[in-house]
UniProtKB/TrEMBL annotation, chains A, B:
SMART domains assigned to the protein according to its UniProt record, in alphabetical order: HTH_GNTR
Keywords attached to this entry: DNA-binding, Transcription, Transcription regulation
InterPro entries attached to this UniProt entry: Bact_HTH_transcr_reg, Tscrpt_reg_HTH_GntR, WH-like_DNA-bd_sf, WH_DNA-bd_sf
Protein name: HTH gntR-type domain-containing protein
Source organism per UniProt: Rugosimonospora africana
GO function terms (MF aspect): DNA binding; DNA-binding transcription factor activity
A Pfam family recorded for this sequence: GntR
Length: 119, 119
DNA sequence: TTATATTTGTCCGTATGTATT
DNA sequence: AAATACATACGGACAAATATA
C-alpha cells in the first residue's frame, strides 16, 4: 500500500491534487460536505477536517452557508538578504518536501545564511 | 455557574489571554483536554476546537501524547531556498534601510535567487 | 525491560443553529 | 417560505504515542 494514511489527510491530499492539476479551478466551489461524505463514505467530521487543512494551507476559503471555494495562487515575493518579514498571524512555512511548520505570529523571517561548502 | 462556557471561541480567548498575560509562560504545558473538559463543562470536541484555534494563531504547539505547549514569540526564522512562507494576514516586509512594505495575505515569500555578479 | 496510565489522534453518529440561496 | 450548506456542540469508541512506575 502506498500508505493507508488517515481519513482526512488522504482526502485533503486528493482535493489538493485536483486543485494543483487544475481540475478544480480558482473560484470554483468544492462539493458540499454532504456530497463529499457520500462520495467518500467518511463522516462529516472527517470531511470537515480535510477542508480545514486545505484552509490552513491557504488553498481554499470557506464562506458560511455558501460553500468552500478554490483560491487563486498568491503572488510571489522574493526575500533578499537583509530584508525581513513578519505578520500579525501565524506564519506557515512549507518545506521542500511539502511538509509545513507553523510559526508564532510576530516571528521574523529572514534569509538563512548560505551554508559553507565544507560542512 | 462557574462561567459562561459558551463555545470554543470563548475558551480559546480565555487561554489566549492567559498566554498574553504571562499566566501561561512559553514552554509551559496547557491543562490536558480532559482537565479542560472538567473545568469548563464543555465537550472534548469543543475543547479541541479551542486548542486548534490557538494552534492556528501560532500561540501553541501540540505534541502527540505529550500535551499542548505555549510557544515563545519574537523568534527569528531563517528561510532557506526551496522553502516558502505564507500567512492569513498581511505580511510586512522590512527592507535593509528600515522602510516597510505591506503585502496581501496569501503572498508566498520565497528566497530571492542570487543575482549574478555581472548585472 | 516491561507494564500501566496518561494524553492526544482519529473516527463515527446525532442534533440544532445560522446564513445563504 | 423553503431548501441548501456550513457552524457549533454533544456524545462515544478505539488507536497511537508518550510519560511514568
Amino acid at each position: 500500500m502506498t500508505g493507508p494514511l488517515n481519513g482526512w489527510r488522504t482526502l485533503a491530499e486528493q482535493i489538493s491534487e485536483q486543485i494543483s492539476s487544475g481540475c478544480l479551478a480558482p473560484g470554483q466551489r468544492l462539493p458540499s460536505e454532504e456530497q463529499l461524505q457520500q462520495r467518500t463514505g467518511l463522516s462529516r467530521t472527517t470531511v470537515r477536517a480535510a477542508i480545514a487543512e486545505l484552509r490552513r494551507l491557504g488553498q481554499v476559503e470557506t464562506r458560511h452557508s455558501a460553500g468552500t471555494f478554490v483560491l487563486g495562487v498568491g503572488d510571489m515575493f522574493g526575500l533578499r538578504p537583509g530584508e525581513s518579514v513578519t505578520a500579525s498571524a501565524a506564519l506557515v512555512v512549507t518545506g521542500v518536501d511539502g511538509t509545513t511548520r507553523t510559526l508564532p505570529a510576530g516571528t521574523r523571517i529572514v534569509v538563512a545564511p548560505a551554508e559553507p561548502p565544507g560542512s
